[in-house]
Amino acid sequence: MFELSGVTKRYPGGDGLGPVDLAVPAGRTLCVIGPSGSGKSTLLRLLLGLARADQGQVRFEGREVPGQDVLALRRRMGYVVQGGGLFPHLTAGGNAGLLARHLGWDEDRLAARLAELSRLVQLPPEALSRYPRQLSGGQAQRVSLMRALVLDPPVLLLDEPMGALDPVTRHDLRLDLRQAFARLGKTVVVVTHDLAEAVALGDRLLLLRDGRVAQQGTPAEVLASPADEFVARFVGAQRESLPGPGGAA
Ligand code: ADP
Ligand code: MG
Which atom number of ligand 1 is nearest to the Cα of residue 211? Predict the structure, then answer.
């Protein structure tokens, strides 16, 4: 679905991402994981066409992302920005339905879609008429997911979709997400700095450090044979939080 070859992105301060080579196959979930500042959000922005690579190519469905119609791309990629990004002056339903309304969907069709999505993400339907400040953190993040899903895009790009949640809510939402991704057959790239979340959600992991790829592989590969000292420490520090006997998932 996505292919990156030799992609680098540098910001004026010298930080950024790359070089990165990466393939994201259709219908699978890739978890991008790494410490704060390692380039996770930059990677998502490159996939979305919101940032442009200095070098290398970012391809979506075989075509280079830069130069493609940004609006057409956005209909194919649901995006949850880090922090959720709900508009405070719109209700939850107004936020979730934003893109569909923009495309001129009639109210009956939109209401049916929002009802369907609120079941999928386990949001109580009455929450749709509340404003973001009247929602719990978990509810707000479910609304952000509904907004990303409303046009039923084949791709979901999620930047720390469970970022600000307490551990119990996180755990519940993680299980809901895993079921939803499996049921929908989407191509998903989800950013997290939580190893347990990455292991639970990802078919593959991409571990970033200082803008470089520290390791890519299946969760089992990364846990069983960390590529270097950094990965070993990163995995070791979070191992207790993993489910299953002895910590390994
Ligand atoms: P992460 O999402 O993993 O926390 P980011 O992709 O947001 O990391 O950022 C990677 C690095 O690039 C960080 O060092 C960050 O400070 C820097 N950076 C991100 N955006 C900008 C920007 N617009 N201008 C300058 N530096 C930036
Ligand atoms: Mg980030």
Answer: 10
Query: For 65-95, how does the pLDDT look when each residue is reduced to its tens digit (9 = 90+)?
Result: 887 888 888 889 999 988 889 999 999 999 9
Q: d(Cα 98, Cα 101) in Å, to the nearest integer? A: 5
Which of 9, 36, 38, 234 has most ligand 1 atoms within 8 Å of its beta carbon, as the pocket-test mutant?
A: 38
Helices 107-120 and 137-149, packing angle to 10 deg:
130
Is 38 near ligand 1, meaning CB less than 6 Å away? yes
What secondary structure letter does DSSP report for 129?
A: G
Is 210 a pocket residue for ligand 1 (Cβ < 6 Å)? no
Q: Which of 146, 131, 153 is nearest to 96 (CA)?
A: 146
H or E element: which one contains 65?
A: none
The reported pTM is 0.89
